[in-house]
Structures are given as C-alpha cells and as structure tokens.
Amino acid sequence: xxxxxxxxxxxxxxxxxxxxxxxxxxxxxxxxxxxxxxxxxxxxxxxxxxxxxxxxxxxxxxxxxxxxxxxxxxxxxxxxxxxxxxxxxxxxxxxxxxxxxxxxxxxxxxxxxxxxxxxxxxxxxxxxxxxxxxxxxxxxx
Length: 141
Prior knowledge:
Glyas_Fos-R_dOase_dom; eight-stranded mixed sheet; 3 helices; 23% helix; globular; lyase activity; 2,3-Dihydroxybiphenyl 1,2-Dioxygenase, domain 1; oxidoreductase; alpha+beta
C-alpha cells in the first residue's frame, strides 16, 4: 500500500456546541457547516479538519445514530489517502491478511469518497480513503 497523504483529521465529539465554541470561536478557524458537521478543506498544512458528532460517525459506520456498546467510542479519526478506489480495496485485503478487523470494508459514500474504516489500538477511527477531489489540480494563487 502506498499512502499519498493524510486525507483528513477530525475530532469526534459528544458536545457539538462545546467543540464549535473551541474551534470556531476560541481558535478562530474558518469552519464551514454541513448539518452538524464542521469542517475546513485545504487549510495550510492539512487537507481537511473536521468536528464530527459521534452520532454522525455511528450513522456513517453502522447506519444508526448509536455507537455500539461493544466497540469503544473513538475521539478522533484520521484518514490516509490512497491513489485510487482500487488501492483502497487492495489495502483492505492486505490488512485483513495481516489480521486487521474492519468496522466496514471499502465502500462508496454518498459524497463520492471510497473509504474503509477500522479502530486502531489507540482507539482512533482510521480510514483508508480515496477522495477524488484531493487528486484535482488546485490553481496557483
């Protein structure tokens, strides 16, 4: 597997208002809002940063707003970007052969990203990702 970059990082919160206060108000980050999800793309030094409510994480991973009790709830997520959707599929197979269990294997999300997710030994939700928009040329400013 060949990681191209860190596709994104997001804290996972149970307190959306408190997190918004910290990151938007105290830090002054230019976060956009999409439903309850706060984020910014292509911020200097990062492709993506987000504040992701746990109920939205659960919905994305399990199709329910409730995180399962038998899996420790993550407090952060990081996604590692691969070169294409086939590379995500291949990385999943490679890691499964090494014994890694996945929350879900590679799938296409409604927003166009191909992603597979698992929980790291540290309790971080890890994504193996192909986000087509990260592979588009950005015009120089």
